[in-house]
Amino acid sequence: MAAILPRTALLLRTPRGAGRLARFLGAGVPTASSGNSRPPAPAARWRNGGGVLHRAASVDPTAVVEAGAVVHSGAVIGKEVVVGSGTVVGPSVSVGQSTRIGYNVVLSNCSVGEFCTIHNGACIGQDGFGFFVDQDGQVKKKPQELYARIGDNVEIGANTCIDRGSWRDTMIGDDTKIDNLVQIGHNVVIGNCCMICGQVGIAGSATLGDYVVLGGRVAIRDHVSIASKVRLAANSLVTKDIQEPGDYGGFPAVPINEWRRQTVNLRLFSKEHHDRR
């Protein structure tokens, strides 16, 4: 304790711990029982979990908002929702019944359906990556003013990012499952019952049908459309529309058997070339 610098900030998870430190240092560290620690007038602590709510938020009495979570003005939290510590629910965000939100999640400019699971560190509804160069050569930001809308029974993995829309809402369909570390750009529309594996990147304004499966590290360029019931092998790159259901793979993605033939022919050519040397 002697090594603590005068301006060191300490995060103490319990009022008892804060009180003990205050007595040890002889300093006025505020505790939960002191007047200085009370939330400002527009906010109140939620009786079921200890999180902080804006008084203009609508939270169902059965919802749990854990200590360290913050719910902003106009947000709507449904029945039996759990909001984990460190999570921020932004203004006018809505969260449907029985959804589970992990730790350190950020929800802004979005709606989340019923029975969803959002794992730790996910960010939903932030601005998309939209810029242009004006006539003076300056890089300017394009307005990002629409929403991200998550359907029912959707699961979103840890540290996945889903951007809000600019010309149409970003949409994730019912029963879709998204792995960790996935990037979904602005204006993307994903259908129902899709499965998206880790490290997938979907560029802005892409459209996916229902029952699409994306293997790990698949990349999809902007403004392409992928038909329902398409499956893409890991590390595939989609550069143009895929209009027929089926299995695809490669860089760029082609029907899976064509990709296999390309791979075999490349290996045979490489071996023959090596043997000639």
Automatic annotation (TrEMBL):
Entry's Gene Ontology BP terms: lipid A biosynthetic process
An annotated GO cellular component: membrane
Keywords, comma-separated and alphabetical: Acyltransferase, Lipid A biosynthesis, Lipid biosynthesis, Lipid metabolism, Transferase
CDD domains for the chain: LbH_LpxD
Stored Pfam families: Hexapep (PF00132)
Gene Ontology terms for molecular function: N-acyltransferase activity
Cell cycle recorded as keyword: no
SUPFAM superfamilies per UniProt: Trimeric LpxA-like enzymes
Record-given protein name: Uncharacterized protein
Organism: Aegilops tauschii subsp. strangulata (Goatgrass)
High-level lineage: Eukaryota, Viridiplantae, Streptophyta, Embryophyta, Tracheophyta
